[in-house]
Specification:
2 copies of one chain form a homodimer.
Chain A: H1 8-26, E1 31-32, H2 34-41, H3 45-53, E2 59-60, E3 64-66, H4 67-77, E4 84-89, H5 93-100, E5 109-116, E6 132-134, H6 138-145, E7 149-152, H7 156-168, E8 173-176, E9 189-192, H8 195-207
Parallel strand pairs in A: 4-5, 4-7, 5-6, 7-8, 8-9
Antiparallel strand pairs in A: 1-3, 2-3
Chain B binds a DNA duplex (22 and 22 nucleotides) through residues 7, 9-10, 33-35, 43-47, 49-50, 52-53, 57-65, 223-224.
Amino acid sequence: MKTEKVSELTTNRLSVYLRCLNELAVSGTETISSQALADQFNLNSAQIRKDLAYFGEFGVRGVGYYVEDLRRHLMNILGLTEKRKVVIVGLGNLGLALANYQGFNQDSFEVVGLFDDDPAKIGVKTRIGVTIQSTKHLSEAIRRDKVEIVILAVPAIAAERVLEEVTEAGVRAVLNFAPVHLNPRPGVKVKTVDLTISLESLSYFLANPGTDAVSVDYRDFLGREAGANGAAR
Amino acid sequence: MKTEKVSELTTNRLSVYLRCLNELAVSGTETISSQALADQFNLNSAQIRKDLAYFGEFGVRGVGYYVEDLRRHLMNILGLTEKRKVVIVGLGNLGLALANYQGFNQDSFEVVGLFDDDPAKIGVKTRIGVTIQSTKHLSEAIRRDKVEIVILAVPAIAAERVLEEVTEAGVRAVLNFAPVHLNPRPGVKVKTVDLTISLESLSYFLANPGTDAVSVDYRDFLGREAGANGAAR
DNA sequence: AATTGTGAATTCCTTCACAGCC
DNA sequence: GGCTGTGAAGGAATTCACAATT
């Protein structure tokens, strides 16, 4: 167990391992080797061992990793044992889809509020039974309900402003779907999902056949950014 | 201008630069320096110059880059001067949202078909005026309409099978929203958007305050994968 | 004077290879 | 024998720093 900083590439892979372990647990598999796990994702087994070694010695030499044990460790590391409250701001197509999406781990994330500034939408109840409120009440609700994560599904033009507002209200983690670069304050983490970049990346590939090296499906997007610790640059 | 392979990190940044140049063009700015561009994204100016240098010498020393000129070059490099046909498979919450999403560059991408295997959905017309068809007709439509990009918004369990089918029908680029690792055949590129990983990454950050180094908003997900050139490992 | 384009230096990430343990 | 954990090697991406150019 080290105290070095852990790269986000590593923690993202932990999520992938966890998903796989969940399936293995369901199927009743007791142990798995780093090699067997690596085969599932075209990864190198040493990488998996290194990723895990940042957090402890979870394996047993000659045996591999106990599925249930490693699963619990990863849940802990990723902070998935607590249920985190989430609000969605912007209930357009995407925001509504996310509000009704069942794919999130329901044990770890709970959508407790939906906010939009379109009067026509306020009061509408979504399938999961949450009512859309005016953004007027956003800050208040975040403070009251101890919301930890905000999903931004607003137009690009509004994203910066809402980020500012929810930061002010104490939110430290934002999942941003607006196609815009956001500069969070120190201590705040923004993760952007940019569909335009994804599509254009496919377009580049189609336009430049063969140019492509080994594709890096899970390692995406532009370089270093200002970030959580504020140490931009 | 070199002939080395260009990393996807580079091409993703080109998308970001292009978006910025579009805004600059609208605002009437004539030239921009790599430094000024870099400031917008907390990037290093040398990185921008290097990224561009893979494709040519677009700048003018002492001046910078002509906005319109560079914009056109980037559009060409990214293959955005042709309109590419897209179909969406899986019209659940997310698929429907994407079908109605106006955010894609309408000049470069056109949604020409929607496919689902739920009989209740077949025949439904979306807001953008495209009717949902049975997946029975998927391969046929791809071949007939020369579809180049498939957006996969099906459940994880079905993703592999649909990928196989559309690959067989000639599609070489897939944007995958199913939370599952896909192994495309050589020559096929899959780009996965995994909301679970994104959320869990935020959860990790919340659970490990301070552990976080400079956040890397645009550089996401797990390491190397089998890919377009088939040179997995 | 300003800014590009790029070799060299640096930093970061991945893979190798093997000692150590079960 | 099989598999982990890890130091060392290798490779990739970023940043520095400066010569070249307008």
